[in-house]
């Protein structure tokens, strides 16, 4: 794991310095990606890194990291797929909640892509730019200001995802709890948006994503 060597700045409202915030995002990005062998091999290192964080965010991360240390790798992989790939209300693609697979989602995806281009970040052929681990990695290692902006704009989605994971008893809910601690508190407007998204669910009709497909530098999905 690439460690961050940043000068500590005054803590934010959640008690996190800039370094702590970016370290948390980096750990969360790895935990929310598919639990392949390279990530599992880093579990002890991730536990040590999480141990440097304040109690408020350290414990939620350690909760799932200890599971990574003791669980069977195949079981972890199966659980990941069942959690995030087979449940529409637990998608890790941030724009999916509001737009499903519609044309409007294509325009929302281009906003992410534009932010990455401005920072000089190139995506792989199989990556959608709203994939939460990718956004977290971008915020942690490339452009923390733009990354925090993208995450902050999707606080209602992140909270809805946390609630969905908590309702299903998933340990991944603790990772969302830690991420939300780095972002602005949930406002009254956010709560209305969360209620709307929860009531409506992602649009089901697949009418195409032509505006996004027009981007010659982007095709396919993250996984």
UniProtKB/TrEMBL annotation:
SUPFAM superfamilies the UniProt entry points to: TorD-like
Gene3D superfamilies xrefs: TorD-like
Keywords from the UniProt entry: Nitrate assimilation
TM region positions: none
Region (Disordered): 200-223
Pfam families named among the record's database cross-references: Nitrate_red_del
BP GO terms, sorted: chaperone-mediated protein complex assembly; nitrate assimilation
Gene Ontology MF: a single term: metallochaperone activity
Identification of the protein by name: Nitrate reductase
């Amino acid at each position: 794991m690439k460690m961050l060597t940043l000068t500590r700045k005054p803590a934010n409202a959640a008690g996190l310095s800039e370094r702590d915030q970016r370290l948390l995002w980096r750990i969360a990005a790895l935990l929310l990606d598919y639990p392949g062998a390279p990530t599992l091999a880093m579990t002890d290192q991730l536990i040590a890194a999480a141990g440097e964080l304040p109690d408020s965010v350290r414990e939620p991360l350690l909760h799932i990291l200890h599971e990574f240390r003791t669980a069977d790798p195949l079981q972890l992989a199966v659980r990941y797929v069942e959690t995030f790939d087979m449940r529409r209300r637990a998608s890790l693609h941030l724009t999916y909640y509001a737009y499903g697979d519609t044309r409007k989602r294509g325009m929302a995806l281009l906003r992410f892509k534009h932010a990455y281009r401005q920072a000089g970040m190139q995506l792989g052929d199989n990556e959608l730019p709203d994939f939460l681990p990718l956004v977290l990695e971008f915020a942690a290692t490339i452009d923390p200001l733009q990354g925090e902006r993208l995450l902050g704009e999707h606080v209602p989605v992140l909270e809805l995802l946390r609630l969905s994971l908590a309702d299903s008893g998933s340990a991944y809910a603790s990772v969302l709890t830690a991420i939300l601690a780095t972002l602005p508190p949930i406002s009254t407007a956010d709560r209305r948006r969360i209620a709307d998204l929860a009531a409506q669910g992602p649009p089901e009709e697949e009418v195409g994503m032509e505006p996004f497909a027009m981007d010659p530098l982007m095709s396919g999905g993250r996984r």
